């Protein structure tokens, strides 16, 4: 079997989520957003697919991806990932980890379809269901949104009592929101949520990502008094020393990271080796795909650590189901004005349906099991 063809189909869809000037998601007016269907086809008719967020640049794929993949055995995923990764150095930053991730996910999808097995089983198949935590959008200034500590409290109560989430993570206010960053206002939101959901619900915080060491330690110590489970990315992740200091200063609060630091599994190894976090973090789109993300999960396991998976979607869910050392699936981002339970227009069903007990169950569909609506894509194709 050989890869014969790599195609990108760019399309639009109606999106009710917008990004602010610093890239944080918030509810917005309906707009035509762009996404891309990446398809790998083989000479025997087998294929793998993935939806890539945004409009993928065909020139990058033509220059760096197609020459590496065409004519190769698609089941040799590690070999293809390594070959592509080694082209990053000379690409002047154009061959990004997100491109690596897109190709790697399509290869895993193909591998699953060829085997007639879901990817979560091929990766390890540790469990067939996982509890989800509700992960809020970042704070805003929207009426009835996430504008005040009380808004967070009311929304967290709904998530836990009415929707069944097992745990809640707050993303608090970040620039350019008025008044942000404010470590004291973040703490007020955390205290209001603890008060609203009671003592037994695990809570996490993902605040402004550029607090100082002193600010991060200040809020971390107060989150311990509120019995929070973990905090992630409160400081610049390039500063390993700051994370070592923060982790060392905490008694009961776990520090989780890195989430957005570059460097794939190699960076996570350094964090584990020098005690910069209590739990590692990896999301498939941030580290270059399932292939490196699985290494990170196993690396954490070898250090006796958990690896908390960043982000939503079928591939992150497959990874979380595959491994023993993770706690929750991150479901979101959630907001009082957003209906998360309706599938995006280019999908026939949700990638991560959750039952009333807060469990997301594995699908038995081969590959990544994403129900792509090809009719929608054909009708909204850009080029
Ligand atoms: O800053 C943000 O917008 C969020 O932190 C976002 O990146 C979210 O994906 C996250 O960190 N989840 O854990
Ligand atoms: Mg995060």
The number of helical elements comes to 13
Q: What is the structural class? A: alpha/beta
Radius of gyration: 21 Å
Number of strands: 12
Q: Which percent range describes the beta-strand content? A: 15-25%
- Main sheet characteristics: 7 strands, mixed
Give the overall shape.
globular
Order of helices and strands: EEEHHHHEHEHEHEHEHEHHEHEEH
Bound molecules: ligand LLH, magnesium ion
Spatial gap, N to C terminus: 29 Å
Overall average residue pLDDT? 98
Assign a percent range to the helix content: 25-40%
Concise account of the structure shown:
The protein is an alpha/beta fold and about 375 residues long. The chain has helices at about 60-70, 75-85, 95-115, 120, 150-160, 185-195, 215-225, 240-250, 265-275, 285, 290-300, 315-320, 375-380, and strands at about 5-20, 25-40, 45-55, 130-135, 165-170, 205, 230, 255, 280, 305-310, 330-335, 360.
Structure characterization notes:
The chain is an alpha/beta fold and 383 residues long. It is built from 13 helices and 12 strands. The strands form 3 sheets. Strands 4, 5, 6, 7, 8, 11 and 12 form a 7-stranded mixed sheet that branches. A 3-stranded antiparallel sheet has the order 1-2-3. Helix 6 runs parallel beside helix 7. The longest helix has 19 residues. It is globular, with a radius of gyration of 21 Å. The model has no long low-confidence stretch (mean pLDDT 98). It binds ligand LLH and magnesium ion.
Topology:
Layout (H helix, E strand, L loop, with lengths): L2 E17 L5 E18 L4 E7 L4 H12 L7 H11 L9 H19 L3 H4 L6 E8 L12 H14 L4 E5 L11 H15 L5 E4 L6 H13 L4 E3 L7 H10 L4 E3 L7 H10 L6 E3 L1 H4 L2 H13 L4 E3 L4 H9 L6 E6 L24 E3 L12 H6 L4
Helix pairs in contact: 1-2, 2-3, 5-6, 6-7, 7-8, 9-11
């Amino acid at each position: 079997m050989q890869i014969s063809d790599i195609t990108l189909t760019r399309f639009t869809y109606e999106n009710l989520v917008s990004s602010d000037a610093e890239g944080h998601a918030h509810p917005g007016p309906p707009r035509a957003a762009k996404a891309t269907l990446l398809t790998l086809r083989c000479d025997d008719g087998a294929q793998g697919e993935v939806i890539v967020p945004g409009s993928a640049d065909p020139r990058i794929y033509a220059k760096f991806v197609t020459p590496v993949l065409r004519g190769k055995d698609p089941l040799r995923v590690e070999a293809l990932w390594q070959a592509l990764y080694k082209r990053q150095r000379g690409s002047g930053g154009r061959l990004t980890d997100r491109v690596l991730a897109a190709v790697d996910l399509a290869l895993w999808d193909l591998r699953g379809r060829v085997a007639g097995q879901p990817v979560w089983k091929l990766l390890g198949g540790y469990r067939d269901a996982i509890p989800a935590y509700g992960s809020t959008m970042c704070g805003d200034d929207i009426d009835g949104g996430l504008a005040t500590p009380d808004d967070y409290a009311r929304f967290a109560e709904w998530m836990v009592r009415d929707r069944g989430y097992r745990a809640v993570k707050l993303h608090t206010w970040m620039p350019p929101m008025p008044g942000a960053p404010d470590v004291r206002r973040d703490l007020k939101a955390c205290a209001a949520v603890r008060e609203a959901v009671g003592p037994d619900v695990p809570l996490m915080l993902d605040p402004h990502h550029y607090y100082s060491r002193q600010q991060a330690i200040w809020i971390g110590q107060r989150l311990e008094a509120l019995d929070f489970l973990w905090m992630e990315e409160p400081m610049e992740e390039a500063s390993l020393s700051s994370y070592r200091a923060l982790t060392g200063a905490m008694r009961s609060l776990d520090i989780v990271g890195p989430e957005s630091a570059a460097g794939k599994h190699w960076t996570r190894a350094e964090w584990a080796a020098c005690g910069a976090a209590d739990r590692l973090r990896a999301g498939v789109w941030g580290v270059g795909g399932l292939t490196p993300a699985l290494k990170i999960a196993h690396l954490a396991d070898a250090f006796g650590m958990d690896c908390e998976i960043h982000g939503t979607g079928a591939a992150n869910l497959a990874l979380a189901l595959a491994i023993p050392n993770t706690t929750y699936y991150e479901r979101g981002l959630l907001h009082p004005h957003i209906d998360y339970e309706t599938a995006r227009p280019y999908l026939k069903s949700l990638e991560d349906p959750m039952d009333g007990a807060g469990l997301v169950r594995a699908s038995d569909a081969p590959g990544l099991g994403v129900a792509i609506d090809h009719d929608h894509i054909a009708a909204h194709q850009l080029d």
